[in-house]
């Protein structure tokens, strides 16, 4: 229940109320150091917004954001900026996040020089070393983004993020635009960097296959709310929330992955005007009266496994597992 959310918030938690964009609503999500948390949901569910708030790119209008025990939202601006450098974001489309008029040297070296982390004359050596680390030829230092392939550009984006020595990396659909074989290479690079540098990841994706491959913990978001979070093993072995169960019964094959991700029956309601009570009730096969009226709270249903569904309070009704649906 709530105690669990509080325990989590000690390490890294975000309890947010986004009244401006209405994209994320009273979120508690905690990530332990060295952990990879996969954040999954359909497009428009608010997962990118949550990632941007965590990276300090978007302000939260209420609530607190904790990082390594400090409430970042309460720090003076300059100090908050320095702390936030330790969180870096890697986006889906490196072409639009890399300045086409700048060389790789400038793109990767800019932030560490600007923040006084490395003297300007040492930037070429530092950038060359980073390029080598992410699998790029360091002699390409003076080249421009358009001279690289999609996968190489994503490696440049990773080098740029690493340049400010982050401890927390937020990947927002970072491999979604890449071919499957390149995806695997980039995912392996993420895992190597995690081992070497002790990184922590929030891995935002609509792709449960990718998330399964990479995550220690999985969190599911639906219309601005976390509806379930569990250690990856428990998540895939014993999913609890009806939305999760529906997602898992429809995990697309690799061939289908490029389809629009909308595997659950029914239209996704507008996040601006979400349904009353449980946001999932119009699409939920188990919905009953209470679901339309009352918001279900996140409850701990097993150690480290939280879920927000009224069925967890009415044990008479069992939630169908994917196996039961198919047999
Ligand atoms: Fe379905 Fe009700 Fe549970 Fe929401 S609270 S997921 S509508 S059973
Ligand atoms: Mg997004």
Automatic annotation (TrEMBL):
Membrane topology, as annotated: Peripheral membrane protein
Record bears the keyword Ribosomal protein: no
The organism's place on the tree of life at top rank: Bacteria
GO cellular component assignments: plasma membrane
GO BP annotation list: peptide transport; transmembrane transport
Subcellular location: Cell inner membrane
Keyword field contains Transport: yes
GO molecular function, a single term: ATP binding
Chief place where the protein resides: membrane
UniProt cross-references to SUPFAM superfamilies, sorted A to Z: P-loop containing nucleoside triphosphate hydrolases
ABC transporter domain location: 6-248
Keywords: ATP-binding, Nucleotide-binding, Transport
Family named by the database record: Belongs to the ABC transporter superfamily.
Protein name: Oligopeptide/dipeptide ABC transporter ATP-binding protein
Taxon lineage: Bacteria, Pseudomonadati, Pseudomonadota, Alphaproteobacteria, Hyphomicrobiales
């Amino acid at each position: 229940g709530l105690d669990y959310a509080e325990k989590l918030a000690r390490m890294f938690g975000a309890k947010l109320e986004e009244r401006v964009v209405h994209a994320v609503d009273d979120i508690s999500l905690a990530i332990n150091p060295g952990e990879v948390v996969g954040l999954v949901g359909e497009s428009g569910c608010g997962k990118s917004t949550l990632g941007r708030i965590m990276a300090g790119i978007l302000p939260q209008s209420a609530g607190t954001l904790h990082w390594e025990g400090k409430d970042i939202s309460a720090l003076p601006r300059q100090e908050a900026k320095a702390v936030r450098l330790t969180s870096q974001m890697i986006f889906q489309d490196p072409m639009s996040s890399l300045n086409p008029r700048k060389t790789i040297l400038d793109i990767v070296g800019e932030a560490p020089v600007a923040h006084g982390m490395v003297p300007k004359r040492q930037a070429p050596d530092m950038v060359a070393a980073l390029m080598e680390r992410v699998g790029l030829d360091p002699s390409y230092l003076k080249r421009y983004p358009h001279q690289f392939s999609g996968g190489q550009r994503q490696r440049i984006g990773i080098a740029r993020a690493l340049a400010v020595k982050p401890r927390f990396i937020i990947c927002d659909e970072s491999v979604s635009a890449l071919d499957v074989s390149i995806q695997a290479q980039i995912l392996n690079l993420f895992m190597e960097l995690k081992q070497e540098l002790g990184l922590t990841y929030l891995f935002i994706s609509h792709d449960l296959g990718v998330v399964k491959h990479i995550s220690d913990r999985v969190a599911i978001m639906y219309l601005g709310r976390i509806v379930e979070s569990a250690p990856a093993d428990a998540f895939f072995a014993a999913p609890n929330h009806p939305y999760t169960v529906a997602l898992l019964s429809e995990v697309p094959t690799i061939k289908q992955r490029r389809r629009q991700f909308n595997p659950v029956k029914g239209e996704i309601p507008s996040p601006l005007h979400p349904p009353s009570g449980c946001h999932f009730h119009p699409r939920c096969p188990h919905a009953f009266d209470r679901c339309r009226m009352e918001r279900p709270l996140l409850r701990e249903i097993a150690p480290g496994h939280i879920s927000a569904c009224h069925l967890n309070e009415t044990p008479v009704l069992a939630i169908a597992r994917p196996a039961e649906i198919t047999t």
